[in-house]
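User: Structure tokens for both sequences below?

Assistant:
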Amino acid sequence: MLDVLKKQYGFIQSARQTLFEFLKEIPFQELHNTVPNFGKASIIRTHIHVADCYRYWLGSFAFKQKRADFSFASEYDIEHSDVDKVQSRFELVDEVVQRFLDEFNARWFENIANEVKWQEEHWSTTPLWLLTHTETHEFHHKGQIVSMARHLGYSPPNTDI
């Protein structure tokens, strides 16, 4: 199963790379423009949110770190990020995913309980749920990012094939 999950993540990285190459064509300021009716407001903010989600759930939560041990991107980091900085953030994500896959190999249904930053009580789930959540979360927001680009007047490539 580990080989399948690593191969699947490789497909995700490939789609992400296609998106990065497209986003490099969009001027810095436009990547930060607020696009109404999207939850995270801008392309850069949304992409950083995705990276932080991976790092939080697969890194901090799965490895049972305390709430105080994890911090999301600061407003300064977000406002000063370009595509290269977001790519660097995803290089950290790739390391976390690799560590997660190696650690939980053959333990996909084991219970993991930990604190959740925005909840008072501990929450419990499985490694397979965490991996599924982060990957589907990325694709949900990837769809929003390409939609935001269209709203800004750009024609994104197909990032799903």
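Moving on to the next sequence.
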Amino acid sequence: MASIYTDLLGWVVIATFLAGAGVEYVRRNRVGDDAGALATLRRRLDASETPPERTLATAGWVLFAAFWLALFPHFAFTQKSYVEGVLSLLAVPACLYAGWLLWNGRDSLLVLSRAVAAMGVVYFPFESIEVLKRTLILVVTGQTGWAMAQFGYEPALVEGPILGYQNAYRFVTADGHGLLFEVVLACTGLGSMAIFAGLIAAVRAPLGRKLRALAVSIPIIWLLNIARTTFIGITFGNQYLQLFVDEVLFLFGSSDPYMVSFFLSDRVISQVLAVVALVGITYLVVRELPELVTVIEDVLYMITKEEYDLLESLDLPREPVRADGGRDVDDR
């Protein structure tokens, strides 16, 4: 993350969402699978007071908005990743809007709130615990080097200047200029894997289908990420995308012409293709776990302010059943 302060804020966000999920779990178990009792309880609470899980989750969304606002300068100006910078800035009003909708009774957003908590539980240990971070980065570094070798490129593996691991590859250009391609945590695909792991963990569905959804998403993300780092390494190390040099340097606020291939391969091509890939993976996961449609419908509602019925559009089961045999009535 950008600093120890954003890490701390991230943990606060996770703790707040987890607290909301915990309260919701306890209160749900009090009424079990009795749909009538659950509906009665919710009507009574809606009439007299705001349910505590809704209050906690709303607070989590407000804190999540602050988190993305704090990250915006890091993405936009430090990393010069305009795609991530724009997305982090857009996330601020999106989080506030989600909190506002939830506070005003759209309880289906509790599923997305649980998902954010689970995403954080997956992601932040690798961000905060050195041995986990180092291991993941070195595995990705090794596999990237192996993949580049399959295409005939074998740059020297050296110590990276940012992290100090053996996680960087040194290329030498035709004019004798040395280039370092360093694999950091952002290069591991952890963020995308955490998103899908969090979404899958958040919904109530049979364990078998959850495991199948993980088996569909995580390996694909891993392989695509290795393809991405391999593409960036080869393209940057061999300066294959030296296009529109002056324009690219101006856009990314750099004066180093050797960085043009990196900016185009990583910040533009790879990040745009990553969005396309995530959409495709989402479709595959939803085929295995149609309960996730609730989250997608909520996101679409936030964007368009229109309700959608994607279960019918995708020809998916309408009444998912939990592993214990009880229907997830009003679990949205």
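User: Anything stand out in the second?

Assistant: Residues 203 and 291 are 6 Å apart (CA to CA).
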